[in-house]
């Protein structure tokens, strides 16, 4: 026999399929199932199935939704001319949690990466082109981080929309709120100095 | 609307019930469900239910099992006179993974903790007393770690089995295999010196 009871082994193996969950964490999580109420477990089982069955990218922006067009794209109060271009769902969730952004999103579902042989056709970019055709001088906010892949993608987007009637912006770089200057990495500090803002003249 | 689609929100909330899983990890895990095959998800759903329904402590030793008596206790080849007393399932799993222990277990399912108001009657101890009644000079290996609670429990077990025909041992303390002496904590080093083993005389 193995170390674990058969059913327990199956659960540990299943939980190990989650990202960042190794043998030890899976064991701990599986043990916690024994102490959970049957009701909570049924809720989890339902949620697992419902997520897999009902969720897919919004046909307009690529946001995760159970509808054809997501609630953000269908929200009359949001500015359709202000499009925040993000790498993945997680980035869009992060902005929505802050809650101050009143525009819409475009989820690329990846970045251009010559190293991984991922080109513009492998991410959700062509639909962005079609999308802005119908808009009147939209602004694209590129919120893509500062990795090499992000820089490549930003360059590419700038290039393909060069001749279009569109403003392209990107997030500001600088010192994070609450950070101590002495502990900042040199690149950030250098960037913050270079991009300094005049507050009185 | 919330940040997440409704079904996704439900899954994130469910996953946060696992120990050590916060908002960020739950979000990441829930997103991974979207990329999993329906088959893998069904396996996970089944395993969740089966674990909750079928698993319970062995009536003899308290090991996790789907039978009345666990495979370890029913294994003819294992020495019933050699009982390794552990705090929880996880400790027993750890010994089973090593695979060298040919005795049986007794899972206390907790430790005596005066601070948490947990006494001997709150852990699986009385059954241990009944268990050794039928044995011929058994050995109890107390594998309980070295926390204050472990020491208290060890003292208590020594006390109640004082007049019985039973050998009580505990795991050896010392330097872990592969450890560098210079990085060891002082208590371990002191203990390793005190408990040194003569290798030639």
What's a quick, concise take on this entry?
Chain A is 42% helix and 11% strand. Chain A is an alpha/beta fold and 201 residues long. At the A-B interface, α1, α2, α3, β2 and α5 of A face α1, α2, α3, β2 and α5 of B.
Explain the layout of strands and helices.
Two copies of one chain form a homodimer.
Chain A: H1 6-15, H2 23-35, H3 38-54, E1 56-57, E2 64-65, H4 71-74, E3 82-86, H5 89-98, E4 104-107, H6 126-133, E5 139-143, H7 148-160, E6 167-170, H8 186-194
Parallel strand pairs in A: 3-4, 3-5, 5-6
Antiparallel strand pairs in A: 1-2
Helix pairs in contact in A: 1-2
Q: Can you characterise this structure?
A:
The structure is a homodimer of 201-residue chains. Chain A has 201 residues and is of the alpha/beta class. Chain A folds into 2 domains: 6-54, RecR Domain 1 (Helicase, Ruva Protein, domain 3, Orthogonal Bundle), CATH 1.10.8.420; 57-200, Dna Topoisomerase Vi A Subunit, Chain: A, domain 2 (3-Layer(aba) Sandwich), CATH 3.40.1360. In chain A, 42% of the residues lie in helices and 11% in strands. Chain A is built from 8 helices and 6 strands; from the N terminus they run αααββαβαβαβαβα. Chain A has helices at residues 6-15, 23-35, 38-54, 71-74, 89-98, 126-133, 148-160, 186-194; strands at residues 56-57, 64-65, 82-86, 104-107, 139-143, 167-170. In chain A, β5 (139-143), α7 (148-160) and β6 form a beta-alpha-beta unit. In chain A, α1 packs across α2. The longest helix of chain A has 17 residues, at 38-54. The radius of gyration of chain A is 22 Å and the shape is globular. The mean pLDDT of chain A is 92. Chains A and B meet through α1, α2, α3, β2 and α5 of A and α1, α2, α3, β2 and α5 of B.
């Amino acid at each position: 026999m193995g170390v674990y009871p058969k059913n327990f082994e199956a659960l540990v193996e299943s939980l190990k399929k989650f990202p960042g969950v190794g043998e030890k964490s899976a064991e701990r999580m599986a043990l916690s199932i024994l102490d959970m109420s049957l009701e909570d477990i049924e809720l989890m089982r339902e949620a697992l199935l419902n997520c897999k069955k009902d969720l897919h990218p919004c046909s307009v922006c690529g946001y995760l939704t159970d509808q054809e067009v997501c609630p953000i794209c269908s929200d009359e109060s949001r500015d359709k001319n202000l499009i925040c271009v993000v790498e993945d769902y997680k980035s869009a969730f992060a902005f929505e949690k802050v809650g101050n952004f009143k525009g819409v999103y475009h989820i690329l579902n990846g970045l251009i990466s010559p190293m991984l042989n991922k080109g513009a056709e492998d991410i959700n970019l062509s639909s962005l082109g079609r999308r802005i055709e119908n808009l009147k001088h939209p602004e694209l906010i590129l919120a893509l981080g500062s990795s090499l892949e992000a820089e490549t993608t930003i360059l590419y987007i700038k290039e393909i929309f060069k001749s279009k009637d569109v403003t392209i912006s990107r997030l500001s770089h600088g010192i994070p709120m609450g950070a101590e200057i002495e502990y900042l990495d040199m690149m950030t500090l250098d960037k913050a100095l270079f991009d300094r803002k005049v507050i009185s003249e």
